[in-house]
Design brief:
The protein is α/β, with parallel strands linked by helices and 453 residues long. It folds into two domains: 194 residues, Aspartate Aminotransferase, domain 1; 247 residues, 3-Layer(aba) Sandwich (Aspartate Aminotransferase, domain 2). Helix content is 40%, strand content 15%. It is built from 14 helices and 16 strands. The radius of gyration is 22 Å and the shape is globular. The model has no long low-confidence stretch (mean pLDDT 96). The protein binds 4'-deoxy-4'-aminopyridoxal-5'-phosphate. The site of 4'-deoxy-4'-aminopyridoxal-5'-phosphate has 14 residues, from helix 5. 4'-deoxy-4'-aminopyridoxal-5'-phosphate binds next to helix 5.
Length: 453
Amino acid sequence: MPLISRQRIRNLLEREKTAFESAHPTSRKLAAESAPHFIAGVQMPWLVEWESPFTLFVDKAKGAQITDVDGNDYVDLCLGDTGAMFGHSPDVLVAAVRDAVDQGLTYMLPTEDGARIAAEFAKRTGLPRWSFTLTATDANRFAARIARAITGRPKILVFDGCYHGTHDETLARLDDGRVNPREGSVGPPVPLEQTTRVVEFNDLAALDEALSHGDVACVLAEPALTNCGMVLPDDDFHAGMREITRKHGVLLIIDETHTISSGPGGYTQAYGLEPDMFVLGKPIGGGIPAAVYGVSEDIANRFDALLDPEHPVVVGIGGTLSGNALSLRAVRTMLENVITEENFQYMFSIAERLEEGIRATIEKHNIPWHVSRMGARVEYGHTVKPRRTAREVEDTTDGELEQLLHLYCLNRGVMITPFHNMMLTSPSTTAEHVDLHNRIFADCVEELTNVAA
Ligand code: PMP
């Protein structure tokens, strides 16, 4: 196997940073001018981690393409880290939203769209009862609250390396058996071990042990970890997790916010999972803020039983703008026209092409990397085999190499998702788009492994 030298990575990275800086004078100016006005110096706080020397500012986006304020065009394989995974501003959504904005945007009362959405999700997931929020974070928070309310237990369990939004109890890590706040977590309200148990993904024995204490209300899990790199479930993981959670009377919340890449009803529908609750946010409104959470009939009945029929009060789940008319019109339009089986079949075929191109380069150069795919979501990693836990991902992640690959692609007109090597295909992504990525990826690997250069 060829050795990729540290010096070579650094030299290429310096070259790419210089190229980025000279191609983005307007972004550089806007970044410098706006920094004094923003908390942490950037428009969204997590941009402090972005790979480029300064933040790229966007002018516009449509379909699978995005244009920055310097007029550079990119094939967008990041797609707003899933928020726009069905393409930027699909025409049908634009028309529906234009129509809806004229009819009042939020009333604190239901619209017919909400009923249609709930019925459609019931069909796709098998869970009959639904509610709305504006973010996946809130949907996860509310699902966990309901789980605590009906089980009377205080804690939740998450997997090491998970991300479920800025939901306090989930921002936890497992460090040598101890539960700690995640690195960079700003101001956790209480020590995390008071609220949260954490085990490694794919470790069913640890899950069984952690739930045996009887203090966990729910397991909150993605079908695969997608935020620390992609960690796929072992073949028996989901069946085992379901059996163990049932054995301990613990509710299972499946967060499909990223794994919706598996199909119109997410991984749950594609692989026949049987969650007690289902959460989905980000792309369902096509970029208009919207999220849903659904529960089984049993959970819904147990929740109803907590309400006093004479004086029903529900506080702690909700939100004034949750389920607003605009948001629901967007979700309904997306479900009926865009988040469809037909579009998914197309997205899968393009994602397969992306995956095959990456694999061909890995094999050609015999480099110790792998590529994984979950429907329309593709990710490569710098180990021979896919990793089974977040800790393994962390121990094998090469930050400089990752930054180089991102900048190398960006400088040649392709944007991949920051923080890991993740790519999405949308109904607007074409074979030419992914072929461009695959050529650029091949060129980068060629430069990295060319010992004669
Ligand atoms: N769940 C998962 C699996 C996510 O990846 C994210 C965000 N990356 C969230 C929830 C939170 O989404 P939001 O920030 O839109 O609330």
